[in-house]
Amino acid sequence: MTDPQIRVLLVDDHSMLRAGFRTILDIQPDITVVGEAATGAEAVAQASALLPDVITMDVQMPDMDGIEATRRIVADPAVGAAIAIVTTFDQDDYLYQALDAGASGFLLKNAAAEDLIAAVRALAAGDGMLAPEVTRRVLARFAGASSLAPAPARPRSATPLAEPLTDREAEVLALLADARTNAEIATALFIGEATVKTHVSRILQKLGARDRVQAVVLAHRMGLA
């Protein structure tokens, strides 16, 4: 019996980029590319038909942009894919809207092969992908008002917590907001990685967040980070 494969859908209007990503991912024993899409509308249709585990989503595409496609895919409970927004650094000033739409992280178009592979595996495992060089810029827009676009509406989950975070959970959340991995959090707090995972799970439950990325966004909106 073979191990379960991580099913990936590649979305980008540049065929060469999709071909490059496919080449990198398809040679991995635990990853298979199940489809490609060149527009946001195609992405929505393919996500529904193929039910991938992970989607790499371009932002600027004809027909429908990646943010709207992300919003529609996340709204479909039958899909359940984790979405990584693919971007180039210092572009797409409205990227933070993708987090509001439900994206689980970001990936640079010029990312190294190992970063792409690690990102796909992280999202498939239910972890958000917090790339410091991109995500800190995006989260800064949540923390303060942007002159480029109106702030996203407060979600229903961004209300006072019914159960407050413990002091340790607050420490873990602060490190999550600093784009730390579980291993780095464990080292910083002198605790085991298994303990970190337990704290992260509790934080997600208390915030009503899908993953680490959304937890950090909500924490910024609620003044917890």
List the helices and strands and how they pair.
Elements lengths: L5 E6 L3 H12 L4 E7 L2 H11 L3 E5 L7 H10 L6 E6 L8 H6 L3 E4 L4 H12 L7 H12 L23 H11 L4 H8 L3 H15 L4 H10 L4
Organism: Microbacterium luteolum
Keywords: DNA-binding, Phosphoprotein, Transcription, Transcription regulation
Protein name: Response regulator transcription factor
Please, what is the CATH homologous superfamily of the largest domain? Response regulator
Helix count from the secondary structure assignment: 10
Spans where pLDDT lies below 50 across 5 or more residues? 145-158
Number of spatially distinct domains: 2
Protein name: Response regulator transcription factor
InterPro entries: CheY-like_superfamily, NreC/VraR/RcsB-like_REC, Sig_transdc_resp-reg_C-effctor, Sig_transdc_resp-reg_receiver, Tscrpt_reg_LuxR_C, WalR-like
Modified residues (4-aspartylphosphate): 58
Domain Response regulatory: 7-124
